[in-house]
């Protein structure tokens, strides 16, 4: 009887360190999770609205690119309703859905920063926010268009012409306007990559440069085939 009892006691003593290690590991994991949650909460609190300047590049980009995207969506919906070219219609649908979604993202940024959707400064003024070589990298593009009009935007007359056009004429006008519109968008996004203070805006803008540059090439190929 003594042997089995001693064996059971030894097994119990051997099991206790394993149990203690398991308990310590569980406590460690819990502490790590709680610490991570605490830092997340601190990060949310430290991201106070006043940390993003109302007239800085992040807010300026979010506002101006929303306006820029809004016109692209409008042009895309116009041609999608009038064109009989299935490729044009597919491109238009993709532009409308993608840019409408992106508009929502930028709208949410401004809300999260506690800033108004409309800025006090002139459009594209934020593109001159840098100093020295950092800000001069796109000074030429910022000066290429009046401060009252964002780069690549179609004029009211061009928008009316698109609404009135039909058939191949409408398809060609749409591609011409959208190529120019995307080129302006790439210039604005490139400025944001270089000037934005937050990684969120820089990463978003870099993705926009890549996507719209690819779309420009696709639109140019499509235009050549019309």
From TrEMBL:
Transmembrane segment boundaries: 23-43
Boundaries of every DUF305 domain copy: 58-222
Domain of life: Bacteria
UniProt keyword list: Membrane, Transmembrane, Transmembrane helix
Matching Gene3D superfamilies: 1.20.1260.10
InterPro entries: DUF305_CopM-like, Ferritin-like
Pfam family, one: DUF305
UniProt-recorded name of the protein: Uncharacterized protein (DUF305 family)
């Amino acid at each position: 009887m003594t042997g089995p009892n001693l064996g059971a006691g030894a097994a119990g003593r051997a099991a206790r360190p394993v149990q203690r290690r398991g308990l310590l590991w569980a406590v460690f994991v819990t502490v790590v999770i709680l610490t991570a949650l605490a830092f997340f909460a601190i990060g949310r609190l430290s991201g106070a609205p006043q940390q993003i300047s109302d007239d800085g590049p992040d807010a300026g980009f979010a506002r101006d690119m929303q306006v820029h995207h809004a016109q692209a969506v409008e042009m895309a919906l116009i041609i999608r309703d009038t064109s009989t070219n299935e490729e044009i219609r597919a491109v238009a649908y993709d532009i409308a859905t993608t840019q409408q979604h992106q508009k929502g993202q930028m709208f949410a940024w401004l809300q999260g920063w506690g800033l108004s959707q409309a800025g006090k400064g002139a459009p594209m003024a934020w593109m001159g926010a840098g100093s020295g070589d950092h800000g001069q990298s796109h000074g030429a593009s910022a000066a290429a268009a009046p401060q009252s009009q964002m780069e690549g935007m179609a004029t009211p007359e061009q928008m009316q012409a698109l609404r009135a056009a039909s058939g191949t004429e409408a398809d060609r006008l749409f591609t011409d306007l959208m190529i120019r519109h995307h080129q302006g968008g790439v210039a604005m996004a490139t400025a944001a990559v270089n000037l934005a203070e937050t990684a969120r805006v820089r990463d978003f803008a870099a993705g926009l440069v890549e996507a719209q540059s690819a779309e420009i090439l696709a639109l140019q190929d499509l235009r050549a085939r019309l």
